[in-house]
């Protein structure tokens, strides 16, 4: 090989500010707050008439139903178990295995209606309910996946 086989490349530091993420990055160690209202409004590109306040109200109603099932002094593990029972068993939220790539799997108003979504949309709903119960939970970006981490005392 000779020097003619190589090309010199200059590397420069980025000049623009970093964009905030809606989840935590296990690589950077940074924590970013999730904004459920912003996530609900993403559907407005495809569905301009979507009522974001209605979506927020629907989730508030789910949270109120869930809270009625728990004593006020329920331990974090009991709250976590109740949330999983409510979300996955009672309400039957789950992945859309029949049409994974359907764009509606990403829109929270559709996920609330059909109870089917992709991992990140299901996680966003689950996290909103978890935070409403006072659980310390956060989304974690992982290569090719999205996970949820719950911190229990």
Number of strands: 4
Cα Rg: 20 Å
Number of helices: 5
Helix content: 25-40%
| Structural classification | alpha+beta
Strand content: 5-15%
Tell the overall outline.
globular
Mean pLDDT: 84
Low-confidence stretches: 8-14, 16-33
Distance between the termini: 59 Å
Strands of the biggest beta sheet: in what spatial order? 1-2
Q: Note the main sheet.
A: 2 strands, parallel
Order of helices and strands: HHHEHEHEE
Summarize the structure in words.
With 153 residues, the protein is an alpha+beta fold. The chain is 39% helix and 12% strand. It has helices at 36-41, 52-68, 76-90, 108-114, 119-132; strands at 94-95, 116-117, 136-142, 145-151. Helix 4 (108-114) links the parallel strand 1 and strand 2. Helix 2 (52-68) crosses helix 5. The radius of gyration is 20 Å and the shape is globular.
Helix and strand arrangement:
Elements: H1 36-41, H2 52-68, H3 76-90, E1 94-95, H4 108-114, E2 116-117, H5 119-132, E3 136-142, E4 145-151
């Amino acid at each position: 090989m000779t020097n003619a086989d190589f090309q010199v490349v200059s590397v420069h530091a980025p000049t623009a500010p970093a964009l905030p993420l809606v989840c935590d990055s296990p690589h950077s160690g940074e924590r970013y707050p999730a904004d459920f209202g912003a996530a609900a409004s993403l559907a407005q590109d495809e569905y301009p008439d979507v009522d974001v306040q209605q979506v927020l109200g629907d989730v508030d109603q789910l949270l109120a139903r869930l809270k009625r099932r728990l004593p006020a002094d329920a331990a974090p593990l009991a709250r976590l178990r109740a949330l999983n029972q409510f979300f996955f068993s009672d309400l039957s939220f789950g992945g859309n295995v029949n049409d994974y790539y359907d764009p509606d799997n990403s829109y929270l108003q559709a996920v609330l209606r059909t109870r089917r979504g992709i991992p990140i949309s299901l996680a966003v709903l689950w996290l909103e309910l978890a935070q409403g119960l006072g659980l310390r939970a956060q989304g974690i970006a992982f290569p090719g996946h999205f996970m949820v981490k719950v911190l229990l005392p």
